[in-house]
Amino acid sequence: MDFKKKGITLNGKDKQSFFSELASLLNAGLSFSRSFQIIIESSDRHKSCLFNRIFADIISGDSLWNAMHKCQTFSSLDCNVTRIGEESGKLVETLDFLADYYRQRNSLKKMCINALSYPAITICIAMAVLIFMLLVVIPMFEQVYARMGGELPRITVSIVSLSKQFPMISAILIFAGLAVFCLHAAYKEHTGYRKFTSSLILHIPLFREIIKRYQISRFCRIMYLLVSSGIPLLKALKFTGDSVTFYPYQNAIGSICEHIENGGNITSGIDHHEKLFGKKMTALLKVGEETGTLPRMLHSLGEDTEKSLQYLIRQANNMIEPFLILGIGTIVAFILIAMYLPMFKIGMAFQ
Predict the structure, then answer these.
(1) Which of 41, 98, 45 is nearest to 68 (CA)?
(2) Is the Cα torsion angle 53, 56, 60, 63 positive or negative in sign?
(3) Which segments of the chain have a pLDDT < 70?
(4) Is the four-CA dihedral 183, 185, 186, 189 of positive or negative sign?
(5) In terms of Cα–Cα distance, which of 173, 81, 183 is closest to 127?
(6) Rounded CA gap, 247 and 195, in Å?
(7) How far is it, in rounded angstroms, from Cα 219 to Cα 298?
(8) Given CB 3.0 to 4.6 Å as the disulfide criterion, which of 238, 288, 299, 322 pairs with 224?
(9) What pLDDT, in 10s, does the model give residues 253-279?
(10) Euclidean distance between CA atoms 142 and 137, whole angstroms
């Protein structure tokens, strides 16, 4: 049953709670059936329906990961990691990993929202003020200057012209926005579209670094769990590739898998994609392969990258705020000067 079509979905916080509770109950010595029943009883009506369906599939003979996959609510990462835990006999450990993964992901998401909330509110207020000035204030000035007669400065004429054309410009922008939205909805799974949009994102200086560090952190954390659970390196890479949705990294992981199948190693495979993974990752993984400490290196690299990502987000927020205020102030000042300039000239003429 596809619960997505019914509007029953689990967000990151819901998944964190589910995996954490199930791991805690199993750790406490309860049976799997009793643990799942407690989760069902403590959930709200919609989630209870979803968990009941999963539990019914498990009772009928399905594995947990396959029951999760059938409901179409859990990601491929959730299902693959749970499958590894069941097959390796380390289900509690993998559930703990997924709970920690979503806990850190939710924390990072909250940090991004906090960082972007102030600029977003500032931009919205500035846009409202700008629209009010273009649609109300500037036409009032235009009527006053029309009665006074005389030639207006070029800068004032330009602003008045912009005010008259603003409704048409707004309609064009709204239409363009709707067209982009429809295009994205229609082609978001198309390889060419994903390649184009991801390439565009990676050319934005600030977002490029944030995206890269997020993807590297996610890659290292997933690979650490898989490799430390005894999963063969090639199989672990394929599982990770299925869990990564950002096209450049998904494509790079596929290329690394082919490289290993042809007799290469992970270090030389990643080295071919240095722009995406960086020199530091190649060097550390090379040491890990040579010394047999690859899981430890992946864990260390994942932790370090995540810390640097959090620092970068905080720094980006500190940089955006002053530039945003300066830009908005400049635009408003430019419009005010343009509209008051004729008055200054009239005052100078009377003197």
Answers:
(1) 98
(2) positive
(3) 1-8, 149-150, 345-351
(4) positive
(5) 173
(6) 6
(7) 9
(8) 299
(9) 999 999 888 888 888 888 888 888 888
(10) 9
